[in-house]
Amino acid sequence: MFSKFLDGLKQIVLGPPSQTGHDGRSRTRVLCRYPVLYSPQSSVEQHRAYVVDIGISGMRLEGVHKLKKGDILSVASAYPGLEQNKLQCEVMWCRQKGADWSAGIRYVETEENLKGSWVKVILQELGLADENAFQRRKHLRIATTLRCEVRNLRTGHYLTDGKVLNLSVGGALVQSANTVEDGAQVLCLIGPYSNYPTLSISAKNLSTRYDEDEGCYLHSIQFSTLKPRDVKQVGKYVVHLLKGRSVG
């Protein structure tokens, strides 16, 4: 059942299997929102933008200045301590979106460089890579604005509440005003959403970090082994959120 559900998600996001023999993993993209710093090859001045979808081969940026196809950029995470970990990327397209510009860029680094980069950290968090294989996808995640309350699993005591930034059948990235102890066993109450009831899921808080720019904490939460009913409920949320949204 679980594998069939994941196959269904794959069809929604990727479309039918390619007949050309290309590895579908390079086309897998997920929606997100991460601050980055970029600078054109001919400039040392850094500009701020946001990664709004990311994959194995490249990413899409919003909030950039007007760029030309073929421009080479140095792109780094805006999170403290990662500003000097820069990746070389090539602009594939740049389009105006309202008053802002967005751009599609591809990595022009070796796979070895990517393995040690901030991109790998994001891909791991979003379920597109793990410790053992840079190109192994785990779970597709979708950006959300769902509400989430986090409680102590054993006592039921309230710990924090906030917003689910990314959701998958494997876990969630939760933004909140309070810290949660790393490794804590928690109960996540997510939703309600649309006509679906509130999800109540046992989980583990893998890690918490403070985002100075947003002034909040980000919790990487891994769901415990889900029962078939839980998989179905989380799946309904994720599928409904995926429908009608382009991640290409």
Explain how this protein is built.
With 248 residues, the protein is an alpha+beta fold. It is built from four helices and twelve strands, in the order αββββββααββββββα. The protein has helices at 2-14, 111-115, 118-126, 228-242; strands at 29-40, 47-55, 58-64, 72-77, 87-97, 100-107, 142-152, 158-167, 171-176, 185-190, 199-211, 216-223. The strands form two sheets. It has a six-stranded antiparallel beta barrel with strand order 1-2-3-6-5-4. It has a six-stranded antiparallel beta barrel with strand order 7-8-9-12-11-10. β1 and β2 form a beta hairpin. It is elongated and about 55 Å long. Mean pLDDT is 75; it is low at 1-28, 130-138 and 244-248.
Q: Rg from C-alpha positions? A: 18 Å
Mean pLDDT: 75
* Total DSSP helices: 4
According to DSSP, the number of beta strands is 12
Uncertain runs are 1-28, 130-138, 244-248
| DSSP strand content | 35-45%
Largest sheet: 6 strands, antiparallel, barrel
Order of helix and strand elements from N to C terminus: HEEEEEEHHEEEEEEH
How far the N terminus sits from the C terminus, by CA atoms, comes to 27 Å
The largest sheet has its strands arranged as 1-2-3-6-5-4
Shape descriptor: elongated
Estimate the helix proportion, in percent: 10-25%
- Coarse structural class: alpha+beta
